[in-house]
C-alpha cells in the first residue's frame, strides 16, 4: 500500500483526500433494489432508486486488512475495461 499526495483539481469535498494505491475488495450487501425507470433502449436502462447500495470495503494494508462500511454513491465506466466506483463511508 502506498500513500501519496493527491494531485487533482480543487473541489468542494467535505474532507481532505489523499491518493492511495492499495488492493480493494468490495462486498455488496444490498441484494436487490426497487426503483423507477427513466428510459430504456436496446443498449440498457436508466432507473432511479431511493434505496442505498450498502457495501463493505476491505483495504489491503501491510499491518492487516482495514474494513469500512458504507454505501456506493457513484459508478462510472472509465473505459471499455475499467470502472470507477465511489463509496461514502459510514460515520463512526
Residue windows where pLDDT falls under 50 for at least 5 positions: none
Number of strands: 8
Q: Kindly report how far apart the N and C termini lie.
A: 23 Å
Helical content stands at under 10%
Strand order of the largest sheet: 3-6-7-8
Specify the number of helices: 0
Structural class by secondary-structure content: mainly beta
Proportion of β residues? over 45%
- Tally of discrete structural domains: 1
Order of helices and strands: EEEEEEEE
Largest sheet geometry: 4 strands, antiparallel
What general form does the structure show?
globular
User: Please, what is the average pLDDT?
Assistant: 89
Describe the model:
- With 92 residues, this protein is mostly beta strands.
- It has one domain.
- The chain is built from no helices and 8 strands.
- The strands form 3 sheets. It has a 4-stranded antiparallel beta sheet, with no helix packed on it. A two-stranded antiparallel ribbon has the order 1-2.
Short précis:
Helix content is 0%, strand content 53%.
How does the SSE layout of this entry go?
Blueprint: E1 2-4, E2 19-21, E3 24-28, E4 36-40, E5 45-48, E6 53-59, E7 66-79, E8 82-89
Antiparallel strand pairs: 1-2, 3-6, 4-5, 6-7, 7-8
Keywords, separated by commas or semicolons:
4-stranded antiparallel β-sheet; 0% helix; globular; two-stranded antiparallel ribbon; 92 residues; mainly beta
